[in-house]
Design brief:
about 5% strand; two-stranded antiparallel sheet
Length: about 140
């Protein structure tokens, strides 16, 4: 089979880079989401409790002011949510770029396959396209 031109191969590598970036962003997003959930649970527990509040500092547990802990957790929650929004924005931008490149690459692949195979074998183009899209899963 004839090789794809170097620009198309570069686009494929670029697409793979975007896919890796998307995976990294998804892992960060998941980690921040877990931390947001834990922070919200801690805030809820503090709000519902009338008992003393203790905080782990290094290797020791100390009694601390309830309002101070609420402020700290609220601020932490705000920062985590801000970071989550930033990651989601990055993810959206990278996904959009990946989709654009995927369209370009698929167009080149379809043209190359049409050059190689007679019209009766066009179904192969569709098969390869589905495999390609499944591989990158963007």
């Amino acid at each position: 089979m004839a090789e794809l031109d170097s620009k198309t191969q570069e686009k494929i590598q670029e697409l793979q880079g975007y896919e890796q970036t998307i995976q990294n962003l998804l892992m960060q997003k998941q980690a921040f989401s877990v931390e947001v959930s834990e922070t919200e649970n801690a805030l809820a527990a503090i709000t519902e409790s009338d008992d003393d509040i203790f905080k782990l500092v290094g290797n020791i547990i100390i009694k601390t002011d309830k309002d101070k802990v609420k402020k700290e957790l609220t601020k932490k929650n705000e920062l985590l949510n801000l970071r989550l929004k930033s990651i989601e924005s990055q993810e959206s931008e990278v996904t959009k770029k990946a989709e654009e490149i995927k369209k370009i690459v698929m167009g080149k692949v379809e043209i190359k396959l049409k050059e190689i195979f007679p019209v009766g074998f066009i179904f192969i183009v569709l098969l390869v396209k589905d495999i390609f899209l499944g591989f990158f899963n963007v």
